[in-house]
């Protein structure tokens, strides 16, 4: 579904799986070329060690690249299916404060994805996310592998 940055931001802010884990979209960048995300520490996502539960941090990294690529390619007239193919997470420091991160998709990455979609019908790329605490210290590193496939090309 083609939506504006504002509509998707508010839909995801109110989406129960994100809302209840205190995952908050601060903003989507123009044309969905990025996002700013925060996960707030609260009673709902705090673990035994008084830090943010690791499952919440993993869920925080999960949806953003697929959502961004989906909106980018819908605007270009493509029918695509997009998902997170794999992810790997490293917990470097306990998340005793809120965490935040920004995602950016540059024009070259979009051009590469479009070229791959037009040549073989799919695009797969790994992206890096660093979640920072209030002191801008890296607490979590996540490698996510986004998968984009044109729907008018048969899957292998």
From TrEMBL:
InterPro entries, A to Z: DUF4442, HotDog_dom_sf
SUPFAM superfamilies: Thioesterase/thiol ester dehydrase-isomerase
UniProt name for this protein: YiiD C-terminal domain-containing protein
């Amino acid at each position: 579904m083609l939506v504006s940055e504002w509509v998707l931001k508010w839909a995801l802010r109110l989406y129960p799986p994100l809302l209840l884990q205190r995952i908050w979209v601060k903003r989507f960048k123009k044309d969905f070329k990025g996002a700013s995300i925060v996960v707030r520490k609260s009673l709902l996502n705090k673990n035994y060690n008084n830090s943010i539960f690791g499952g919440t941090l993993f869920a925080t990294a999960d949806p953003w690249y697929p959502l961004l690529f989906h909106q980018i390619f819908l605007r270009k007239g493509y029918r695509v299916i997009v998902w997170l193919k794999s992810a790997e997470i490293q917990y470097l420091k306990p998340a005793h404060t809120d965490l935040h991160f920004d995602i950016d998709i540059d024009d070259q990455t979009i051009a590469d994805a479009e070229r791959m979609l037009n040549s073989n019908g799919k695009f797969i790329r790994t992206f890096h996310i660093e979640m920072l605490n209030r002191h801008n210290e890296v607490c979590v590193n996540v490698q996510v592998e986004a998968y984009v496939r044109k729907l008018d090309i048969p899957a292998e």
